[in-house]
Amino acid sequence: MAIKTIGYSTEVSTGQIVEAPHVSQSIDAFSAANQQDYDISISGSFKVTGSQFIEPDTLLTQNKHFILSYDSDTGQIFKMNTASIDDGDEAQEVYTTGSNNTNIIPEKFGTFDNTGTNSAIASGDFNKITSACSFIGGGIRNTASGNVSFIGGGTNNIIPTTAACSVIVGGSSNIMCNNSSRAFIGGGFKNTASNACDFIGGGNSNSITYSNYGSNTIVNGINNTICGQNTSGNYILVGTNNTVSSDYVGSNGIVSGTGNTVSTNYDIALNQITSGQCNTISGYNIKYSTIGGGCCNTISAYTANSHIMGGVCNATNGNCQFIIGSNIIASSSAACTTFVNNLTVSGSAAGTSIVIMRGLPSSDPSNVDQLWNDGGTLKVSAG
Question: Within a domain: residue 51?
């Protein structure tokens, strides 16, 4: 603000003498060579034919949604809302504001609905944002309602209000639901994630439907399901129609295959089916057990540290049981036992085989087909 004003207590009027100070003030105020600081107020129109300059760093600043615009035809200056800015290219602006000045939508193509604060729709058609700080890159009929959410593209993908900070990269009809905050769906068709930090890479009709907890993973495949309550860290990597169902435990998994099931509850889990078809780990308090492959193999309740390597229709019924073969049903009383159909011991290239059996009973155990050591002679009990 200047410290001087033009004018005196005795103004210039008809019949009075015009003195030097009356003229020198105007010269001082408007002189380019020796300009003085005067406050100048102009009412009515003001026309300038030469160049205009503003002293650097002298303009005041404020947060308003208006700017000054210049009409090159009339030379007039106007007050203009920033939302109506026209760059003179026959209204071919790429973006404009949506429902308010804090979001944007495409200007000349598509139908969009953006009511979110600091949110943006970049492209596509019939896309909708109702949440803050969210983004839709493109596609058709995608909806982002969770705050700080992201939909890259695709069709009919949905992030609800309960799924803040979640991501759907693309695909079709993928859905975040329940409390799936910070969850991720990469793509695919009709995939569903329901809890915090769930991950679905892609595939068709895969679903994670746990209640509470989260951090479960399906990488790919078709019709794979992770379900249950109060558990996390379960996974299906790939395959078809596989199911992991766990309550109050976690870290059960299926690597691949079709129609495989891991279903456990109450206690530490860490069970896995590596491959195969229609294999099952199911029951109460099963832990640290695996099925390597094969078909229709089963690990039942109250089993720990047991393993079926492969084969068909095998079943464990106790702790630390190992099955190699087919159609073997392990006895529940046979802990720390390996079951095989046939056993061939092949020696080295020189043809030598070594078989060592320590701890054999030294008297007949009266157990059908059990080996025992009769003073150095290997015998088979008749029962």
Answer: no
* Residue 291 Cα to chain centre, angstroms: 31
| pTM, rounded to two decimals | 0.74
Of 31 and 175, the structure prediction assigns the larger pLDDT to 175
pLDDT score, position 9: 47
Strands 175-176 and 192-193: parallel
Residue 35 in domain: yes
Query: Amino acid identity, residue 8?
Result: Y
Tokens matching residue 371 = 């080996």
Number of structural domains in the chain: 2
- A 10 A CB-CB count for 14 gives 4
The single-letter code of the amino acid at 375 is G
Q: Please tell me whether residue 121 adopts helix, strand or coil conformation.
A: strand
Rounded to whole angstroms, the Cα distance separating 373 from 361 reads: 6
Structure letter (DSSP) for residue 108: S
248 has a pLDDT exceeding 50: yes
Give the bridge partners for 92, in sequence order: none
Question: Under 8 Å CB-to-CB from 296, ≥6 apart: which residues?
Answer: 277, 278, 279, 312, 313
Q: Which two tokens stand for residue 75?
A: 């030379």
Closest-CA residue to 183 (of 170, 202, 198): 198
Residue 377 resides in a domain: yes
Cβ count within 10 A of residue 372: 17
Q: Which domain holds residue 1?
A: 1-39
Q: Can you give 213-280 as a three-state secondary structure string?
A: EECCEECCCECCEEEEEEEECCEECCCECCEEEEECCCCCEECCCECCEEEEECCCCCCEECCCECCE
Give the C-alpha separation, 157 to 114, whole Å. Answer: 16
Report the amino acid identity of residue 226.
I
Query: Residue for token digits 């990269």?
Result: 169
Q: What is the pLDDT of residues 31-89, one digit of tens each?
A: 666 666 777 777 777 777 777 777 777 777 777 777 888 888 888 888 877 766 665 65
In three-state secondary structure terms, 199 is: strand
Name residues whose C-beta falls within 8 Å of residue 59's C-beta, 6 or more positions apart in sequence.
none
Question: What integer is the mean pLDDT of 331-350?
Answer: 85
Report the 10 Å Cβ neighbour count for 274. Answer: 19
